[in-house]
Amino acid sequence: MSIWRRLALISITCAGLFAGPLASSSGDAELQLQLATLLFEDTRFQEAAVAYRNALASDDPALHLRARIGLVTSQLRLGEFVSAQHDASNLRELAPKNPEAITSYADALWAAGQFDDGEAAWRDALALAPESSRGLHGLARALASKSQLEEALNEAQAALKLAPRDAEIHHTVGSIYERMHRYEQAAAAYSNYINLLPNKDRSDKAAWSRSQVRFLKSFGENAPIALDEASRGRLHTVDFRVVDDKVIVKAKVNGGRSTDFVLDTGSEQTTISR
Length: 274
Fold this sequence. Notes:
- By secondary structure, the protein is mostly helical.
- It contains twelve helices and three strands; from the N terminus they run H-H-H-H-H-H-H-H-H-H-H-H-E-E-E.
- A hairpin with a 2-residue loop joins strand 1 and strand 2.
- The chain is elongated, with a radius of gyration of 23 Å.
């Protein structure tokens, strides 16, 4: 956190502590919302969720709506998907024509595994606000999940033009490039994501993404997942066995000994554990 953001956070906290009974509920709620926003930007999602919930006491409908949207987003960051879906449903009823409320509702549906409903809600938001960066980002995720990668990339890049400092969109762009085997561009997108994280020197997310960047850059000019021309279009039969409902195949890595691999047809990635 920068020194100025830290000072702002201290100032807002102190104002809330010393306002006492003389402050109006709207004034308290506004302070809580400012505090929640700073905490969220600093990735202190648990504390942000508490402040957003405190801000719900506001009599101002617009402020109450902003607080509820922030609460749902914080819950999603914390993995509290059931609570997020419940609060997002209330949010949708509270503001059925508000694009930001609808995108938060869609995010909660998607996180809960209701993918078709989530995509439909993102499309509803875009019908109301075609330049909603969060709506475009959501649609990009939905298209990518159906392997419509070119279309997904177009939507994600459109979202990025509207919100160039949204780290999550950069990460989504990187993941789409990676699936398209455009590794240099994927590494660049992940690097942008890292640079936008508030605690990039201490963040676990940043450390993980740096590992991804190093891995992607390690290919250089080589083309991974490439087949030689003699193998293209040919039918290959591979022996397998089923263990605990998992499909197991044998494979060699870099000419080493045969190793058991678990085949997951939905992951589109290869992960090798120790």
